[in-house]
Specification:
Blueprint: E1 6-12, E2 17-24, E3 31-38, H1 41-52, E4 57-63, H2 70-77, E5 81-85, H3 101-114, H4 125-157, H5 171-178, H6 185-215, H7 222-228, H8 236-246, H9 255-261, E6 266-268, E7 277-280, H10 286-296, H11 307-315, H12 318-340, H13 345-374
Parallel strand pairs: 1-4, 4-5
Antiparallel strand pairs: 1-2, 2-3, 6-7
Length: about 375
């Protein structure tokens, strides 16, 4: 029998079971713990059906985490609202040092009813697949970095040095590595295994980049990826990685919202008449922020369009080309001005990355406008 009432249901998710709590009606409604259920879709569907028979309106929530978005998609498919809460923005009591599944579920239910939870953006299944692919490439690149460091450390221990001033990990460097002679068989075996690991990691990155190149044309954000490639420092991989992590940029109403989401705005600790700004907040998605900062390093040099970049710039719409050139002109000058004032290079590049986010937002707006006009 339906009560014609509203209820807020919270899950504290884990690998094998989900703790469930419910908060009824308004602020004075009952809050109770319903117990734990299996993480299977059948158990979740049975619970939702049981609660839907008692309450007219249901709203569900759980923390974003390693369990992914399967629970969210199932609840949405059953016709109910669901919120995936940002863990870092969940209010907590400083003196509360007891953490259990039961307490977490009850707390989430109360916060959901009070409207105190901040939702994360949930990608669709196709977008999540692109994100998995781009993260696999990022993991492979990190693995390659570690393997190269192992080789460098091994050589340093044995007093072998590549000539200073020459580019490392180039073809000539790899030839130099292969030509090194070691005194003992055991050392030669260890060194060859390290070099084999480097080559394997490079091949893995190549395969993943080919897969990304093949998948992008069928992606919903393919037009934005092509447009962003007209900007200096942004190629297919960096554009795909950034968009896979951030998603649809149209959900940000202003460039400042995107900057804040990326954690590139200064932190602030003000009290009374004192206003104190600190380092950037580093909130939001760290992979997207790191990618943007890496792209921003290219703006150390004077504005120009290189030979390799000309084709990508020419393929972009005129409005996008104008934004990309405006970004080059402004950000290159911005970097030099900050360094001239005595700012550290890392600080200057971070400031450039913050403004680069605004130009990316503007390009996305142009692509969305052109798409809407075509329709």
């Amino acid at each position: 029998m339906i009560n014609h009432s509203e209820a807020f249901v919270a899950f504290d998710t884990s690998k094998l079971s989900n703790a469930v709590a419910i908060a009824e009606g308004d602020r004075s409604g009952e809050v109770r713990y319903l117990g734990e259920i299996e993480t299977s879709g059948a158990a979740t569907g049975k619970l939702v059906k049981k609660l839907a028979a008692k309450y007219e309106r249901l709203t569900f929530c759980y923390e974003a985490g390693p369990t992914g978005y399967g629970l969210y998609r199932q609840i949405k498919s059953l016709g109910h609202a669901c919120l995936v809460a940002a863990p870092s923005l969940i209010p907590t009591k400083p003196g509360d040092r007891v953490k259990t599944n039961r307490r977490d579920a009850l707390s989430l239910a109360k916060l959901l009813r009070a409207g105190e939870l901040t939702a994360v953006w949930v990608p669709d299944a196709r977008h999540e697949a692109m994100r998995d692919l781009s993260r696999a490439r990022g993991a492979a690149a990190e693995d390659l970095r570690r393997k190269r460091q192992q080789v460098s450390s091994f050589l340093l221990r044995h007093g072998l040095h590549y000539p200073a001033g020459r580019k490392t990990w180039s073809k000539s460097h790899m030839s130099w590595l292969s030509s090194q002679k070691l005194d003992h068989l055991e050392q030669r075996i260890a060194f060859e295994e390290m070099l084999f690991g480097v080559r394997q990691a490079q091949d893995r990155i190549g395969r993943l980049e080919q897969a990304i190149g093949a998948a992008v044309p069928e992606w919903s954000l393919a037009a934005v990826v092509r447009a962003l490639m007209a900007m200096r420092g942004i190629d297919l991989i960096s554009a795909t990685t950034f968009l896979a992590e951030i998603g649809d940029l149209s959900r940000f109403q202003t460039p400042r919202e995107l900057m804040a989401y990326l954690g590139l705005v200064p932190s602030e600790h003000s009290s009374g008449d004192k206003v104190k700004h600190g380092p950037i907040t580093k909130a939001g998605n760290r992979r997207a922020r790191r990618t943007l900062v890496e792209c921003a390093w290219s703006y150390r040099h004077p504005a120009r369009v290189g030979k390799e970049k000309q084709q990508k710039v020419a393929a972009a719409p005129r409005a996008v080309r104008e934004i990309a050139w405006k970004a080059q002109s402004r950000l290159s000058g911005r970097y030099r001005a900050l360094v001239k004032k005595g700012k550290l290079k890392t600080v200057a590049v971070t400031a450039v990355a913050r403004e680069l986010a605004a130009f990316i937002w503007a390009i996305n707006r142009e692509v969305a406008t052109a798409r809407a006009a075509a329709r």
